[in-house]
Write the structure tokens for this entry.
Amino acid sequence: MAIHSVIKWLIMTGLAASLSGCFSSFNQASKDKQSLPSWVSSPPQNQTHLYGVGSAPKIDNLALAFSQAEQNGNAQIAQQLTTQVSQINTQNTQVSSSNGKEQVSKVQTAYTQVATAPIELEQATNEERYAGSHYVYVLQSIDRSRIVSRLKSAIHDLDLSIIDNAGSLTTTLGEDAAPADWQTYMRLIPAFAQRQSYVEELQLYSTERTLAGRASDEVISIERQLNQALLSYGVDPSQTPQANTLASALSEFGMTPKSPALFRLVSNTSQHSEQQSGRYYVFEEGSLALFGPNDARLASWTVSARGIAKDQQRAADTATMNWSKQAISAMFTWLTRLD
């Protein structure tokens, strides 16, 4: 899944500057005749905040020097968060079944293809400033407790929405997914993807020993049912000229290519090629149509793609592969954004 929003902000604002001031300044601290504040060498430590100390050379423009030091302090916090990310046990919800690994991989693959919305979190704030003879120093902080509280609230609200959506299913949890419920299941994909994004963020900031953001038994059962639906519904690309490449693209989006299936694909494309500077440029364009239950036409998309290679057949194969990926991406986006 995604770089976390706060880490991204901290790294973008602080990483470049940190290379010039974050480490060298501490080696030069002895040049300051004044005694440095204790927080420079020993920043506070507690369960509610993360702290970072930054420094920068002292220049005539003191405001600019402090600004650079704050960026360095932000970068130090980002480094702490990055270290925590590598230590987090991001176990996925387990699905108990004879082929559980396959089921988990289906929803997890689908989740990665959904564009989730970041939650607006706290940004770093300045706690202390100090100007020495040669360097300026700052203490930056992030209130992790407020971030944890907001994320827990967002996950709680999302779980209520998931349960409410699942309430419209015509079969009970544990039974085979009904073809008539396909729209409800497709709406659950982005909901669970968003939930996973929030949980990963929560695990980053939470100090709980247990896995933060664990779902209730009811939500776990709904996700298990979603797994089962993605496997049982399936999408049939076998009657298209791009059967193999469409099947591969479907798998990349967590869909199950099989025949027969609840959904069926029909394509109508053409290719043309050009040769320039010893390379072949093959262009493939055309439409992909999706048919659903009772063979009803649901939607269609027009897609263009190209392939480039020294060998014409390889360029043509690449164009077909790229066309298939773009077509399935458009289809998946439509399916998971149904009102």
Notes: The domain at 235-335 is CATH 3.30.160.150 (Double Stranded RNA Binding Domain).
